[in-house]
Model the fold of this input.
Amino acid sequence: MVAGGGSISGMIQRSTDLITPGPALVDPFGRAVTYIRVSVTDRCDFRCVYCMSEDMSFLPKSDLLTLEELDRLCSAFVTRGTRKIRITGGEPLVRRNIMTLFRSLSRHLDSGALEEITVTTNGSQLARYAKELAECGVKRINVSLDTLDPDQFRKITRWGDLSKVLAGIDAAQDAGMSVKINAVALRDVNEHEFVPMIEWAHKRKCDLTFIEVMPLGEIDGERVDQYLPLSQVRAKLMDHFTMEESSHRTGGPARYVRVKETGGLLGFITPLTHNFCESCNRVRVTCTGTLYMCLGQEDAADLRAPLRASESNDLLDQEIVRAIARKPKGHDFIIDRTGDRPAVGRHMSVTGG
Ligand code: SAM
Ligand code: SF4
Done:
């Protein structure tokens, strides 16, 4: 049995269910919501300094959606025109039996209802799961990696082992998946490594994206100390590389350049210095079924209650439609030098990256 209810064989039986498309989800600003990011757990086997405090308390497992409920929820969005699902966390690959969810969701890839299932992972479990993920139709994954120095890696992640992550990236590429590396830019921590990281990533055919630290959740240190504006990073990188503007877009916050010397793509996610909301096509669901219409706002809708209220998806669907009708125009992140509270109280590991 899957924790909290439905049997795994039951889910696999459901895998023949076909989707009858309903009307698409369009928000009040005319943006179609075609992409959901689903956090399948708030737990993690790392404790990255910018993401969590070392002594985190996690949700009781009974609060989490079961794998079957996660499947129903994702499928309800697919019915409404979602074309892309990203599975994230916490660390998604530490959730018990998580491959069951990938296997069952892959039916939507087979039917053509869904274009893509992707994963954001810290890579610690990838060596074990890469082949299975590829078999479930996952073609692209994002691996978070902020440094190539084993000691620094241990300092940033507190509990991580760089060699396992590198082995995971190898396994993912061997399984035929394309790997994008995400690195959070941290002042005085990894900024001196950006040039070798770009060369390393592009040499192994991985695109690389730098992310600015976002003010999400209480952590042990000070955000202002970690914050490094990517405008500064980009200016310094121009001493080493020729960066050509690229039209590559994912509907998300990243803006890309092509590095002439390496031929690879380099992305910049700058939530604090740029507003990227006008083309936002996504919403996020937490592992307890809370739907956030914007990463940088508190307004949310509870999808767990309608999921559990009946076996049919009608109530769930109604709640999703109601929530999308209030998707805000944009976020208002602030890193406040005087205040001691983050702009958004929940951690990235709760909403999912
Ligand atoms: N554990 C997985 C991982 O690390 O890839 C998935 C979840 S993690 C929350 C997703 C992404 O969010 C990671 O790339 C991580 O570096 C990033 N992240 C976490 N906290 C952040 C913060 N406060 N600001 C910016 N990025 C953050
Ligand atoms: Fe875990 Fe990912 Fe957060 Fe690091 S960024 S603590 S790997 S959830």
